[in-house]
Amino acid sequence: MARDLEEYLRPEVKSTPFCPGCGHGTLMNLILRAIDELKVSMDEMLFVSGIGCAAWIPSPNFNADTLHTLHGRAIAFATGAKMFNPKLKVMVISGDGDLTSIGGNHLIHAARRNIDLTVICANNMIYGMTGGQVASTSPLGAISSTTMEGNIYRPFDLCKLVLGAGAPYVARYSVTQPLSLVGAIKKSLTTHGFTFIEVLSPCHTQFGRRNRYDSPSDMLKMLMENCVSKEQAEHLSKEELKDKIITGEFSDGGA
Amino acid sequence: MKFEEIASTLPPRTYYFSGNEAVAEGAIAANCRYYAGYPITPSSEIMERISIRFKDVNGVFMQMEDELASICSVIGAVWAGAKAMTATSGPGFSLMQEGIGYAALTETPLVIVNIQRAGPGTGQATRVASGDLMQAKWGSHGDYHIIALSPWSVQEMYDQTIEAFNLAEQYRVPVFIMGDEATGHLRERIEVKAKVKVFNRIKKLGAPPFGTDQVDGIPPMPAFGEGEKLLVTGSTHNEFGFRKTDDPLVHSKLVNRINNKILNNQERIIKTESYHLDDAEVIVVSYGFTARSSLYAMDELRKEGKKVGLLRLKTIWPFADRIIHQIGGKAKKIFVPEMNRGQIIGEIMKYAACEVIPYNQTDGEIIHPHQIIRELRYLLNNM
Ligand SMILES: Cc1ncc(C[n+]2csc(CCOP(=O)(O)OP(=O)(O)O)c2C)c(N)n1
Ligand code: SF4
After folding, report:
1. Is B73 in contact with A80 (Cβ distance < 8 A)?
2. Pocket residues for ligand 1 (CB within 6 Å)?
3. Residue A141's pLDDT band (boundaries 50, 70, 90)?
4. Relative to the CA of B135, which of A25, A211, B188, B318 has its CA 20 to 30 Å away?
5. B176 and B299 assigned to the same domain
6. Strand, coil or helix: what is B251?
7. Does residue B176 lie in a domain region?
8. What is the mean pLDDT of chain A?
9. Do A73 and B69 touch (CB under 8 A)?
10. Is residue B161 within 8 Å of B27, Cβ to Cβ?
């Protein structure tokens, strides 16, 4: 973590809990960078997370009010806090398993109700904390500790899901696209209503090593090669798009 | 001031309410300003009335996507500073259990109303039972104590709802109102008084929100947005909220304290009502709607000079072990009518030295006075 962001961290926190090379550490940095650039006071912020590695991004690290909740239920907790005290700026940060599998129902309902929350979903395509089981976001064919012969079910397109539920701001970026990602986080924090950012955040420990990306840098290279902007994607054939991850803003707050 | 007398939101007079309406009014009177719930028979009227009446008092009402979302959003609202409640029945109560354990460990004051219906499963959605009393105590995993009240009238649905909020705030604990379909749908006259006594949350900025230097201490509770940079987690934590999940001392200290703060205060928390206990040879121990039938039965038998008494449990948890121990040393028999297969009787047997006789009914009907009279006559004739 760059020293210039240290003021955003609790003084008691001396190290990150993540594996070296985990994307969640980078994401933590980029979230704080966006807050720093916007000059939002940490006294106004409430960070809510569920259970999982990603849920540790704000708790206990961020020097603000933090609510570390139950697996899958972060958005429900956040809804109560925000609805009772609308002055709180509420950001939910959690994993793909947490927000979209066990917590998928809360995600689509909060989007439908357009609750004024910023939701950042750290998608590592796997259940990191519990030892690399398949997730609702794991690609077809992915090897996991519960799909040793390859995942046979299609993954969710999370952005389409949340868009379908009516969220006014929806975007997807990878931690390998830091500038765009910081821009998106800033936009989500300044857009009123339910905003959702899916962030591809590599987990080499549980996903990479089973799927031929042996080191953190292999995972980052894979993301850099596979992420294409939605504008680029328009010029690619279905075949060329097969393993690609389309990034960009899918709804820009105009609603 | 911890306790404060505030003006009733309803003009003071006599009202004709259902039990469920009385719960909603009691909550509003106690300053509840956040409610989240999901429709389920036979408790839905609570949420329907709240949804209308909250408009008068600037409360926030949310109909959530399920009961787990409801209790989680209530916990979120409480940490944002609200007094908050949810109500449910049967399957909804089961869905809430994970949130209840979270509230117990994070010492989140809130009120959960269970208008009990006949289970298990979807069971008899519109019928009465009191089959969830052990679930209220043991429903979520791990060791924790809660407070559970058992109203027997519409007046008590109102009064105990106010009391539940006050107990929740005093002890920073989830408090349950274990009503049932019969009391929820019963219509009776109730008196609304001009003043309501409410307990205000204790705040002490800068103090640790999850520990005191006493083994049964109740820490003050700040809210989000007060600049405290609160750290709230359902994992094992030290007194400032830092996760310490591998530390045996931190864990045992925390778990012991959240249990002891209730156990060591049980004499203050527990309320019972006694009728003719002094000379009774047979004592009926009863609670909830069934206690109405028990009272009627006792009165009828007393008219015949029979030595029958009644102990009514207004508090189910923590359990009234001392008074049960006392009466069990004096009476010849204790008779326990319950609308379940025998739940509270197990607690009574733990503490009463005398013979304890069950009477169980699980057909979705109330236990009528004549049934209790018949059983008691048989007992009295065979002593
Ligand atoms: C109700 C419940 N079920 C299961 C778990 C176990 N569990 C803890 S973290 C986790 C998965 C987390 O995955 P994800 O949200 O994708 O986060 P990651 O660790 O990958 O960052 C699971 C299943 C739990 N804590 N609670
Ligand atoms: S297991 Fe994966 S997600 Fe969890 S900290 Fe390690 S690399 Fe990150």
Report:
1. yes
2. A 51-54, 71, 95-98, 122, 124, 126-130, 135
3. very high
4. B188
5. no
6. helix
7. yes
8. 96
9. yes
10. yes
Q: Say if residue A235 is exposed, middle or buried (CB neighbours under 10 Å; 0-12, 13-18, 19+).
A: exposed
Same domain flag for B7 and B88: yes
Domain at B334, CATH number: 3.40.50.920
Q: How far is CA B297 from CA A37, A122, B154, B359, B363, in A?
A: 74, 63, 20, 14, 21
Q: How many CB pairs under 8 A join A and B?
A: 124
Please tell me whether the interface predicted TM-score (ipTM) of this complex is above 0.90: yes
Among A57, A203, A211, say which to mutate for ligand 2: greatest number of ligand atoms within 8 Å of CB: A203
Please indicate, yes or no, whether residues B278 and B133 belong to a single structural domain of this protein. no
Secondary structure element (H or E) that encloses residue A109, with its range: helix A104-113
Cβ atoms of B284 and B294 within 8 Å: the answer is yes
What was the pLDDT predicted at B1? 62
Mind listing the pLDDT tens digit for each residue in B43-68? Answer: 999 999 999 999 999 999 999 999 99
Q: A22: CA distance to ligand 2 center in Å?
A: 5
CATH superfamily of A5-252: Thiamin diphosphate (ThDP)-binding fold, Pyr/PP domains (3.40.50.970)
Please state, in angstroms and rounded to a whole number, the distance separating the CA atoms of residues A123 and A53: 11
Strand partners, A45: A89
For the segment A100-111, the average pLDDT, to the nearest whole number, is 98
- Residues B141 and B277 reside in one and the same domain: no
* Beta pairing, strands B272-275 & B308-313: antiparallel
Query: What residues pair up with B233 in beta bridges, in sequence order?
Result: A68
Chain B: closest CA distance from residue A55 (Å): 11
In-domain check, residue B254:
no
pLDDT of residue B153: 98
Q: What digits encode the pLDDT tens for the residues A146-167?
A: 999 999 999 999 999 999 999 9
The DSSP result for B23-45, as a single string, is: HHHHHHHTT--EEEE---TTTHH
Give residue B111 CA to ligand 2 midpoint distance, Å.
Answer: 38
Q: Which of A48, A61, A73 to mutate to test the interface with B (most CBs of B within 10 A)?
A: A73
Which residues is B231 bridged to in the sheet?
A66
* Residue A116 structure tokens: 């004024």
Note whether B279 and B155 are same-domain residues: no
Q: Nearest ligand to the C-alpha of residue A49?
A: 1
| Residue with CA nearest ligand 2 atom 5 | A18
Chain B nearest-CA residue for A72:
B69
Asked which of B177, B199, B221 is the last residue of a domain, the reply is B199
pLDDT of residue A255: 45
Tell me which residue in B65, B82, B102 faces A84 most closely, judged by beta carbons.
B82
- Tell me the residue range of the domain where B48 lies: 3-199
Q: For an interface test with B, give the residue of A77, A99, A116 to mutate (most B CBs within 10 A).
A: A77
Nearest-CA residue for ligand 1 atom 16 is: A97
| Mutation to probe ligand 1, out of A22, A51, A56, A92 (largest number of atoms < 8 A from CB) | A51
Is the same domain home to B19 and B126? yes
As for how many domains chain B has, the answer is: 2
- In B, minimum Cα distance to A62 occurs at B229
Interatomic CA distance for residues B183 and B130, integer angstroms: 11
